[in-house]
């Protein structure tokens, strides 16, 4: 019996979508399915190692540069190349992943005439915090591509509700036949269950209250929210410790900020164990976590001795010089004011 020819298309070769793709390619029955993958290495060039492994195992892998953000010229080139791959492959099923590549390959499948198109959004792009124009563009793309899609495979009830709210399809009971929900999972046999050993490896005591976060270090995951919450929790429960597990695009910048601030040897310390200057540097690191356009500093040296204040002044000057970080300060410290490119004075409620 002829095998079913399936092509998996993914731009976001990172995080959960990466794991999802590899699970499909590694687990589907090779006697029933002939698998091909089309991926982009733009986000993670290191995925080339997985590409080599898959090819060695007999899975055809085609690399096509694709970008996450809208890019008309690059998108047209990617669409042309996707059409070529689909024409040559004569596939029975296209499985599109994530919003950007999902739209492009569904359009390509429509042009070429692939018999069946399956789409897994892995979280619709319009659900991500971004500007209103971009969210509207992603909603429009999803509505345009809906008629080209034979089946949506959603991974959570949140996605289903988002699809209803965006009117991708009408509410129905029982659920609309156009979609199924298959939640992601982790094989428990691959996870260590030795709790004591895990806590010991992290330097955690038996009495410590441990709150963990597992996820990619990206703006979408908002680790800054966790850090804000951690400060409040630790002020009430000093025994609480927070563990952040993950890799991602923010890891290098976070590590550089930690090193620049001289806090590398204080990562496991609680706020009450830090000096005033160290606490102030932690506050600066937290403020810089999401690469803000403007850093607001209210009396950054106000409660510090002259020596520690000089260190903070040096740090702010370094941030401005090395990263071109815009800093708006309120200060009574003339030494700090002298660093500014522009100084305004507040007198009787008016700026002069």
Provide a descriptive summary of the structure in words.
The protein has about 350 residues and is α/β, with parallel strands linked by helices. The chain has 3 domains: about 5-180, Rossmann fold (3-Layer(aba) Sandwich); about 195-290, no CATH class; about 290-350, P-loop containing nucleotide triphosphate hydrolases (Rossmann fold), CATH 3.40.50.300. It contains 12 helices and 13 strands. It has helices at about 15-25, 50-55, 70-90, 100-110, 130-145, 155-165, 195-200, 225-235, 250-260, 275-285, 305-325, 335, and strands at about 5-10, 35-40, 60-65, 95, 115-120, 150-155, 180, 210-215, 240-245, 295-300, 325-330, 345, 350. Helix 6 (about 155-165) links the parallel strand 6 and strand 7 (about 180). Helix 4 (about 100-110) runs parallel beside helix 5. The mean pLDDT is about 80.
């Amino acid at each position: 019996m002829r095998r079913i020819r399936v092509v998996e298309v993914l731009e976001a070769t990172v995080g959960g979508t990466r794991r999802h793709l590899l699970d499909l390619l590694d687990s589907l029955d090779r006697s029933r399915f002939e698998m091909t993958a089309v991926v982009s290495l733009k986000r993670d060039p290191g995925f080339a190692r997985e590409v080599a492994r898959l090819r060695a195992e007999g899975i055809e892998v085609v690399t096509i540069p694709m970008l996450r953000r809208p890019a008309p010229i690059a998108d047209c080139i990617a669409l042309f190349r996707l059409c070529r791959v689909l024409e040559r492959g004569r596939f029975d099923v296209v499985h599109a992943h994530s919003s950007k590549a999902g739209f492009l390959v569904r359009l390509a499948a429509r042009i070429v005439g692939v018999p069946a198109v399956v789409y897994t959004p892995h979280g619709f792009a319009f659900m991500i915090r971004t500007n209103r124009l971009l969210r509207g563009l992603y909603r429009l793309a999803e509505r345009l591509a809906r008629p080209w899609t034979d089946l949506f495979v959603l991974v959570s009830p949140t996605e289903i509700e988002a699809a209803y709210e965006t009117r991708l399809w009408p509410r129905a009971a029982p659920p609309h036949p156009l979609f199924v929900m298959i939640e992601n999972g982790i094989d428990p046999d691959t996870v260590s269950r030795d709790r004591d050993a895990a806590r010991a490896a992290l330097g955690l005591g038996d009495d410590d209250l441990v709150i963990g976060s597992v996820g990619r270090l990206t703006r979408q995951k908002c680790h800054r929210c966790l850090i804000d919450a951690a400060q409040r929790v630790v002020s009430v429960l000093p025994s609480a410790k927070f563990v952040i597990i993950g890799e991602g695009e923010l890891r290098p910048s976070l590590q550089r900020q930690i090193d620049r601030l001289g806090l590398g040897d204080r990562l496991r310390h609680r706020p009450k164990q830090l000096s005033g200057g160290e606490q102030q540097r932690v506050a600066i690191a937290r403020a810089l976590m999401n690469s803000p356009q403007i850093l607001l500093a209210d009396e950054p040296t106000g409660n510090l001795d002259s020596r520690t204040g000089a260190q903070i002044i040096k740090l702010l000057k370094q941030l401005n010089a090395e990263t071109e970080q815009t800093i708006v300060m309120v200060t009574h410290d003339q030494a700090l004011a002298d660093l500014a490119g522009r100084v305004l004075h507040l007198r009787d409620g008016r700026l002069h």
